[in-house]
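Worked problem 6 (solution included).
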Amino acid sequence: MEAKRITARSIIESARGTASGAARFRESEAETVTGTLALRRKVPEKALQHLSHAIEGNPRNVTAFIQASRAFCVMQRAAEAVMLLEFGLELNPTWKIFKELSLNYEKIGDQLKSLSLWQKYIEMFPSQFKGYLALGELYFRSRSFEAAALNYEEAIRFGGDQPAILLRMAFCQEKLRRPEDAIQSLKRLVQLQVNLAQRMEALDGLVRLFEEAGKFDVSAGYLDQAVKLVPDAAKYEKLGDLLFRDGRTKESLEAYDRSRELSPANFQLAIKCAGISYLYRKDSKKAGSYLKQALEINPAATEMMSFLEKMAAGRDISLEMKEYCTTHLDLEFEKRAHELKPDIEPDPHEETVKQLVRISLEMEEMVFSRISAFRSGFSELMEMENGILTELQQSLGFVREGVQGRLGRMTQRPVDPQDRSSRDVSLFLQNLSSGVKKQCTTLRKGMTRISARQTMINASAAGLTKLLDEIAQESQLALGKLRHATKLPPDIRRREMLKIVTNLSESIEKIKNGC
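Solution. The predicted structure is:
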């Protein structure tokens, strides 16, 4: 006989009517173990049978709820997993249930529920750092770095300095262009007893941040700590570059030599060392030694042999050496000779950011001008309506006064058959009719003006709505392209970002001309 299909609703109904005792608690634990083993053997239907009995025996069995939800997920029944966990949360508001339910919300793509879930956890347990950490991670994954950083700070306030949180917070602070805060976070991390990977990540961050700030000596100091922990050819070459930019050419050559020991086939680095030795250290012998090593790495580099021969003959080849090094290594030796501490290289995306700011300001100005015109037109309409109503009230008042006065005079006059009262009444009625017609004509003209103004206002509102819709559509399209561009290599990313900005500028210009 086919077993009845177990659903989340059936488990919940059974659990609600349970009066558990000590014996049932023990039975619940046993059923949980059996169900967990069945789930590990990838038999979710059998696991659910045991886990439903476990929950029925003890509705506060957190493990049973979690394992049952996982069984539902294995069976591609995520909605039932969420339903079961929500019921479990009502009975057991514990960290494990919150965490499992949040994961399931994210699986079904409901980020808002996951967000409100962790906010509820913080309301229930305001002094536990786990809630702030989980909320920070949720914001971090959605790239809301400002909100993530705030929650990481709260997590540290209640849970103390923890390496993983400090790393996350430093990353957010760097993304938010707060390098000083990021540096402080990484310095605190370096002072902790952390594992090698975390220490290396913190040191790399400090090297990068101080280099961007132009403090090459400090950056070199942190990189020196990193290469002592993990010797690496690329890092030693980077250390040599930082020392050279700080004007410490002797120490830079020592770092380059250490890099070449770890990577002896680095032809470009041998040329770099020869150039620095010859042009900055004025050591022809040392430069010749580097050139020989370069020639051994690449025998086809005939320029090296020519340089060696000229140096052996005692000829001055400084200009040729400068040209060669500049051409092949893109090193500005002339500039570095006079500026040992050059300015920070400009951000390659700075122009892109400026263009985006300019476009946003243009859009803002355009939208606000439309809104101002709309408000002005609406105010004029209201003034016109009020004026017409006032004029109509005055006219009706005059008519009323005239009627009352005329009737008063007619009733006070003595009745005389020979009097021409009938003619007077006829004349009065004719004048009254003419006055009313005149007021009706005035009213019609006023209402025509109001109708025309309303048409203009409605057209302005429609134009404003169209403008905002088009801007929103173009901005959304550009944002999608920009997100895709951030995943590309740096050189391609910069080109794509500039293309996005150009296209957006053209689209906004078309919208402005069309409106």
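Discussion: The radius of gyration is 41 Å.
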